[in-house]
Amino acid sequence: MKSGFIAIAGAPNVGKSTFLNQVLGFKLAITSDKPQTTRHRLLGVHNDRKEDLQIVFLDTPGLHDPDKPLNRVLVDTAMAALEDVDAVLFMADVTRKGLEASQKVAELLQKSKKPTLLAVNKIDLLPQKKALFPILDQANSWGEWSALVPISAMKGDGCELVVSELAGLLPEGDPLFPPDVITDLSMRFLAAEMIREKVFRLTEREVPYSVAVTVDEFLEPEEEDGTTAISATIHVERSGQKAIIIGKRGSMIKKIGTKAREDLETMIGTKVFLDLFVRVEPKWSTNAGGLRKMGFDS
């Protein structure tokens, strides 16, 4: 069989996590329309018994010019993921901003010397198919690619072709994970990410980028039809941000909690009791101690 590791790399907000979720058929990676939603290396296992294939995907934070300590950690995380993989899935998108950012990322990826497939995402945004051809020509000029595939990760168009092309870049070998394993991430970690996703989607300006979530307690039910109890803290950097997260008469924290609980119940498969707190941690994203406290290797 074919088996191996594939890093999903690219500029922020080009659809890397959406692609991973689409291929896995499972919401592993959180998504939003804001850059730098992904902050950690996420491992997702795709098994195809019919094709005798196992691809271990490593979804990575978006590559960009970091201007803050947290952003430098994110970029370091993404670059470290490229070192030990068999090949790279480089994702770009068809927007002007996405193409400009992706051209810079292409220069970094060419230096890695890894076999790289380039997928140009968000083709569903184009008004006409003929608009795609100059974009593909532009993307192809950035370097040497094993294949160039236009896709819509949101709709799934082209994703099977990407997987098929990536399979050709992998070595023959035994499975790296048992067939029933989707990820190496804990439910505790995934719960924190689900909560942070709601903050990203429901708040604006600097608030999402100043937020981290830690799970204080995760109690699994003792009975089969019982309730999972989760207690979590949303950390912000300023008291004004805390007020925004809580909202007028607690309206925002209630909305965040309700939407997070719905996703958590789907993921875990039980009813969920979710208790949220908001705490001010001044400048946590700009100092080594704060970053370590929130689970980042600074």
Class inferred from helices and paired strands: alpha/beta
Q: In the CATH hierarchy, what is the architecture of the largest domain at level 2? A: 3-Layer(aba) Sandwich
> What characteristic shape results from the CA principal axes?
globular
Q: What is the string of SSEs from the N terminus onward? A: EHEEHEHEHEHHEEHHEH
- Can you summarize the main beta sheet? 6 strands, mixed
Number of helices: 9
Proportion of residues in extended strands: 15-25%
CATH topology of the largest domain: Rossmann fold
CATH class of the largest domain: Alpha Beta
Annotated CATH homologous superfamily of the largest domain: P-loop containing nucleotide triphosphate hydrolases
Could you say how many structural domains there are in total? 2
Instruction: Calculate the terminal CA-CA distance, rounded to whole Å.
Output: 38 Å
How many beta-strand segments? 9
GO biological process, one term: ribosomal small subunit assembly
Subunit structure: Monomer.
Region (G1): 10-17
Main location: cytoplasm
Task: Produce a short descriptive summary.
This protein is of the alpha/beta class.
Care to describe what's here?
The chain is an alpha/beta fold and 298 residues long. It folds into two domains: 2-167, P-loop containing nucleotide triphosphate hydrolases (Rossmann fold, 3-Layer(aba) Sandwich), CATH 3.40.50.300; 187-293, GMP Synthetase, Chain A, domain 3 (2-Layer Sandwich). It is 35% helix and 23% strand. The protein has nine helices and nine strands. The protein has a six-stranded mixed beta sheet, with helices on both faces. Helix 6 runs antiparallel to helix 8 (251-268). The model has no long low-confidence stretch (mean pLDDT 94).
